[in-house]
């Protein structure tokens, strides 16, 4: 594949439209553009998570996920094309089972907190949920394969689990466990 980006500032979007991968132009507030942007933002947040100290296996998994998210974004930018393979969802399911199997059961809801890497993974989790909502909205208006929606759903679950794993990895010395919600119900059971 040759160089695809030869000019970054084309000024073609100055009219409020943007080009899709298939050459069509749509308004920048189009549902497809929202979904593409949310996936791009999620991928960028994973880049931030990757800038933190991480266990090697988690780092390798997140790099693979970044490539798959790029495929997902590419698929969204080219209506009718399939770039995200269905085995990508199966890989997330396997990773989810593996990492969740290493964790203790939750006693209560947890806060998106702890180590910096865990907190950043929680931010990525919320971005995955938003991207999923955008893909669902797009699917309500246009044909979208199920794999992108399934992938984002599993990824948000996996990022929740990875945040718990990263708290326990405690690579920055500021974590070590989940940060539990101090709920009124829990307070009543303790006192």
Brief overview:
The protein has 191 residues and is mostly helical. It has helices at 31-50, 56-77, 87-100, 116-141, 146-169, 184-190, and strands at residues 17-19, 25-27. The chain has a two-stranded antiparallel ribbon with strand order 1-2.
- What is the average of the pLDDT values? 87
Order of helices and strands: EEHHHHHH
Which spans of ≥5 residues are poorly predicted at pLDDT below 50?
A: none
> Which radius of gyration do the C-alpha atoms yield?
19 Å
Instruction: Tell me the structural class.
Output: mainly alpha
Strand order of the largest sheet: 1-2
**N→C terminal distance:** 65 Å
As a percent range, the share of helical residues equals: 55-70%
The total of helices stands at 6
The portion of residues forming beta strands comes to under 5%
Sketch the major β-sheet: 2 strands, antiparallel
Description:
- A two-stranded antiparallel sheet has the order 1-2.
- It starts with 16 loop residues before the first strand and ends with a helix.
- The radius of gyration is 19 Å and the shape is elongated.
- The model has no long low-confidence stretch (mean pLDDT about 85).
- It has helices at about 30-50, 55-75, 85-100, 115-140, 145-170, 185-190; strands at about 15-20, 25.
- The chain is mainly alpha-helical.
- A hairpin with a 5-residue loop joins β1 (about 15-20) and β2 (about 25).
Descriptive tags:
191 residues; mainly alpha; two-stranded antiparallel sheet; EC 2.5.1.-
